[in-house]
Amino acid sequence: MPGGEGPRGSAQPDGAAAFDLAGTDCSDGLGRCSEGRVEVSVAGHVPHPCSAPREKPGSCECAWRAVASCDAGCVKDGLEVLATADVAAVQLCAPIEPLLRPLVPSEATTVTICAEEGVSCIEGVVRVCAHRGQPAQLVAGCAHGCAGGIAVDLEDLRTADGRAVILCRRAHAERR
Question: Which of 49, 120, 147, 176 is close enough to 169 for a disulfide, judged by CB 3.0 to 4.6 Å?
């Protein structure tokens, strides 16, 4: 067959190497906090197979960039969320001031039917919607309202260790 092998072959008509798409695409837009340090993901591509040189250990993994450190540690170590660097730097650090409040009677008795599955903060109340068409579970009230620009996976919020504060606005944060 003139011109080399098929699309994944090694020879091209001009003698250039074939472009190989095997590997992992690394996205941006994720934030995480680990050991008191907030990081955001960096877009890129890690080829497969990958062999990292000794002077660059970890170069076969998706990259993370440090954006802040937390005086009081992380809300939850290793938890990954959808957020910009600015939002992650504030929301993933454990708050110094109390952020959660009891639900007021009018909030606690209001029934909201879920339009979609997921976790949201609406009008100062963190809600979990396990199934479309079912009533929302009210998780907590936020003392200063909801934070904007951050999303938490449903499975990551279903514990009682205070992760709802990730969706609550900090007292010193700018209102959006």
Answer: 147
